[in-house]
Structure formats: structure tokens, C-alpha cells
Amino acid sequence: MDLQNFVVTPAVMLILVFGIVEFIKGFGVTGNKLRWIALVVGLLISATFKCRDLFPAAKLYIDVVFFTLASGLSASGLFDFLRKFRLSDTSPTEPPY
User: Which burial class, exposed, middle or buried, applies to 20 when counting CB atoms under 10 A from its CB (0-12, 13-18, 19+)?
Assistant: First the structure.
């Protein structure tokens, strides 16, 4: 990952929320408590995203925080979360004739 090519978009924020919630699930948090944690995490990430526009001087620092979160989550199991949603290979082993 390169910070020069890293773009913070709502899609990146969504993946960060999913990754952080999956990371918290690893500690055994379930039920309504996990739902509230997911809400708070989403609110914090979206508020931080909006601060990029309100405080242009802090834009670089906010990008660095999002970049390090994305890097850390990819190292801590976000790959396993995304693998659950991968489509299985349905291609035939032999070409049809």
C-alpha cells in the first residue's frame, strides 16, 4: 500500500467499520453490545471523515490514520472476513462439447 495512491472514500470507511467490528468479534463480543460498538465505530469514522473537509490542515494526518487502520486490519484478519463473501468457483473442470 502506498499513501500517495490511498484515497479515503465512503467505501473505504465501510470496509474499515467491517474490519474493526470483525476484529472486536474476535474478543467474543456478541449481541446488542456488538451492535452498539459497531454504531459508535461507524459514527467515529464518519465524523473523522467529515473533519477532513472542515480542517484541511489535518487532512494528511487523517489519511495516515485511515491508512494505518487499513494496513493493520489487513494484517489482523480482514482477509478472512472478505473470504466468507467470495463466490465459489463454478467453472466446469472440462470444457463442454
Answer: buried
Residues 6+ apart with CB under 8 A from 18: 78, 81
Residue type, 75: A
* Dihedral sign computed on CA atoms, order 61, 66, 69, 72: negative
Residue pLDDT tens, the chain, 97 long: 555 667 778 888 888 888 888 888 888 999 999 999 999 999 999 998 898 889 989 888 888 888 888 888 777 765 666 666 665 555 556 555 5
Helices and strands per DSSP (H, E), number in the chain: 4, 0
Which set of grid coordinates corresponds to residue 73? 486490519
* Cα separation, 12 vs 7, whole angstroms: 8
